[in-house]
Structure formats: C-alpha cells, structure tokens
Amino acid sequence: MSANLESLRRKVEAGEVLSEAELTTLREAAAGSEGPTLWLAVAHALVNAEAEREALPLLERLRRDFPKELQVRLGLARALLGLERHGDAEEVLREALALSSGDPEAIKVLAVLALRRGEKGRAQQYVREVLARDPFDSEARLLKEELEAVELPAHALAEEQVLRPEFNAALAAALRRAGVQFRLQGRDVLVKLAGGEMARVNVGSLYAAYQGGKRGLTEYVEKLAAELGGLRTELGEDVTALERRLRPVLRPGGFEAQAVGALHRAGPAGLEIFYVLEDPEYVRYVPESVVKAAGLTAEAVDGAAWRNLEAHPAPVRPVVVDRGVVRLAETFSGLWAVAEGDGHDGARLLTVEQRSRLALQAGEGPLRVSLGWREFALVCRESDVAECEALAKLGHAPDGIPGQFRLTAEGLTQV
Q1: Which has fewest Cβ within 10 Å: 97, 109, 190, 368?
Q2: Residues paired with 185 in a beta bridge
C-alpha cells in the first residue's frame, strides 16, 4: 500500500472528513484491490462525513461478500447507529460476537445501547466483561465511571439518547461552525486555543459529561465549541498553585509541530519533554510565552514538573499480550505495565521512585520499554528474549511513541 493511501486510511481511522479528491482517490484504489480493507475505509469515510445512507449499501455488500470479516460487521453497526436503526445495529453486533466471542468493541456498543434503554444492570455486566479481559481499556473504564454516576429515570426515553459516534460528529460540526481550528487524533481532538497554543481534549470525557438527549445535543456542543474556542492556558497570579499542577510528558521528536508554542526541551533517546497542567479533561500544554510573562524560567517549570511526578508514582502490574492486546495477568508473567493511566506513565520511568518500584518486580538489570500507549508504559527484562519479541510485535497506538527503548541506571536510550 502506498504512503498516500496509508495516510488516507489513518485520517479515516482518526474520524477526519476526507475531501472529495481524497475520497475519490480512496474509491479508485478500492476498486482495484482484493479483500474488504479499502472498501471498508471508504465506508467509514462516508460515515465520518455523515453520509451513512450512502455507506449502508456498500457495507451490506461487504457483509455478503465477506461473511466472516469482523470489521465489516462493526462498520455496518456503526452506519446503522448513525441512522438510528438501533435494533438492526444490535443484531449486527451480535453477529460480530458470533464471529469473535468477547470482542470488546462490539460489547462496549452493546453496553451503550443497554444504557439507552434504561437497562443499567445489563450495561454494567457488559462493561465488567470487557474490563475482565482488559483492565486497561480506557473507553470501558470511562463507561464504568459513567454507569456508577448515572441515575436513570424510571422511564428512560430511548429516542432521546445519543451514542458516541453521533456526539463526535455533532461536536466536530460545531467546532467548524465556530471557526475553531482542530484535528481529530485517535480518541482525542487537538484544539488551537485562543492564545495560539494547542490543547489535547479527550472526547470521551466530554461525552461522559453530556447528560442530555438529542434535543439538547446541538445546544450543548455549540456551547462546548465556544468554550474550547475561547480556552486559554491562563497561569494566573498564584505561581505556587501553578507549580503544583505542572507535569512532564514524553513526546516523539518533532512533536512541537503539533503543540505549537508549547514549552519543551530535548529529552532522552531522541524524545522531547513537554509540560502540561494537570487536568482531568484537557491535556493543556504550557506555552513558552505565558511562562515568560509569569516570570518563570524554563528550569523552574522543569524542576516543579518532575518533583510533582516523583511524588505520584504509578502501580506496576503484571500483564500479558493476548492476540495483540495487553491484558492483566493473574500471576507472574515477565511483562509489566506502569499504569496510572493519566498520560504521564512514560515520563514516570525517569523518576527515582518509579524505578525503585520497577526494580522490586523486574530486578536491577536493563529493561526493554515500549511507550506505544499513553495509558501505560510496558517493560520487560532485556534478558527475556520472548517478552522482548512480544513487545516488538505489539506496535503502537496512533498517539503513542513508536520504537523500542532501553532503560538502565544511566537512563533511557533507543534500541
């Protein structure tokens, strides 16, 4: 597959809307291809553009031609949900589960459908099933928190509920109408703030905070777009309070093109260290210009950020790689996850306390490290050939850091 086609596929997977020329390129490539992959990308591109009615016959044809292809069923369910054909979508999701028992994506959508019908207990059971297989599934954890907090009315109005894909599309449309510069990236959206700096917004958190139904969706996302468009990384006059909120994060080389104007410095192993404000919803990069205006030095920000992270180490948990998915292990496995899940786990590997906790589990020798997921960092002993190979095959998420790293007493280096 050419680099251009791979780029188009990544845009589709991130939920971006393709231009007419890009969609035409994807269609032409699909017409000359074997298998469902590129045609499925075309269908998802249409759904991203809110053209579910055009995508539906294409997905029905793919289901007929590729009856054992799981991703086709999931794509068809997505289109049906966009058309509010919830019963048909549920039937397709159950077909997906028949093809792949326990598929987490299908089960999570079934959980949302159950919640929509007011079946809280059933929704909770679905979520427990996903988390039992993968306690690191961030969407399932978010659903669990939402279910624990929600109080359903006696007669939940199913037709007024909103599913995640519909919420995402409405938010993107509202941001465009508001003239806010943004870019979808995996489960997040990068927003250019009023001050010129960039913030990473977790769309899942925004969706979880949405309490209304369809009648209030437009008003809600319009307000949200206005808030995001006017958001600034204000440091305020209380520098001490600011310093307590600072945290460091590791990013791949060249990341400054995505977080324009954000304070950063060179890190180990070709990585870069950026600074963010602790925030449950937004990844708010600290702008260099605002730091200077507050009378802080880059050294002061760096020192405060690392002190804060040092004081908040993460648990080290044994995990296994099961068919390309990281799952919690019941016993010793030779592979561990540093897993606080707040986006700072990669940087934690550079702190003294976290290294001490790792040594208790993995020993004092060199460790092989994967930073491919922001929700956790994976490590194994470098002497464990099988686990090192498993890490190498695992790959990385779209917003993760590619490659393999080596952690020793001297620090982090690239393999």
Answers
A1: 97
A2: 188
Mean pLDDT of 251-272: 89
Strands (E), 193-302: 198-202, 246-251, 264-266, 272-277, 282-285
Q: Where are the domains of the chain?
A: 3-154, 164-229, 239-310, 316-414
Quick one: angle between helices 70-82 and 52-65, nearest 10? 150
Which of 160, 230, 165 is closest to 203 using CA atoms?
Answer: 165
Q: Which residues contact 269 (CB under 8 A, 6 or more apart)?
A: 405, 412, 413, 414
pLDDT digits (tens, 9 = 90+) for 123-148: 888 888 888 888 888 788 878 877 77
Amino acid at 38: L
Euclidean distance between CA atoms 205 and 226, whole angstroms: 17
Work out the angle between the directed axes of helices 104-116 and 138-149 (0-180°, nearest 10).
Answer: 20
Q: Where are the beta strands (DSSP E) in 16-85?
A: none
Task: Provide φ and ψ at 273, rounded to 5°.
Answer: -105, 120
The number of CA neighbours under 13 Å toward the Cβ of 77 is: 25
Name the amino acid, one letter, at 361: Q
Question: Does residue 264 contact residue 295 with C-beta atoms inside 8 Å?
Answer: no
201-219: pLDDT as tens digits: 767 667 766 756 666 788 8
Q: Exposed e or buried b for every residue in 375-394, given b needs 16+ CB within 10 A? A: bbbbbbbbebeebbebbeeb
This prediction's pTM: 0.53
Q: How far apart are CA 233 and CA 244, in angstroms?
A: 15
Predicted confidence band at 349 (pLDDT cuts at 50, 70, 90)?
very high
Instruction: Report the first-to-last Cα separation within the chain, whole angstroms.
Output: 27
Residue 354: how many CB atoms within 10 A of its CB?
22
How far apart CA 116 and CA 358 sit, in angstroms, is 42
User: What sign results for the dihedral spanned by CA atoms 349, 351, 354, 359?
Assistant: positive
CA-to-CA distance for 320 and 327, rounded, in angstroms?
Answer: 5
What is the Cα–Cα distance from 281 to 198, expressed in whole angstroms?
Answer: 14
At 188, give phi and psi (nearest 5°). -115, 175
Rg from Cα positions in the chain: 22
The second-level CATH assignment, the architecture, of 3-154 is: Alpha Horseshoe (1.25)
